Amino acid sequence: MNLSSHLSELRKKHEILSTRIEEEQRSPGSDDLQITALKREKLRIKEEIVRLSATQH
User: Fold this and answer.
1) In this predicted model, what pLDDT tens digit does every residue of 17-26 receive, in sequence order?
2) How many domains, the chain?
3) Which of 12, 20, 29, 52 lies 20 to 30 angstroms, CA to CA, from 5?
């Protein structure tokens, strides 16, 4: 997998996590710990995207 396709996959995962977080937050029985874990994972992916994007240029 080249860097460009890896970044594309990371961006897709980031978007999926955003959607899941929004859905969880709207759910009446949402689990705060689960939402926090999803947000941490989303942040980790974003940091990796930024890091890899910087090395690409």
Assistant:
1) 999 999 999 9
2) 1
3) 20
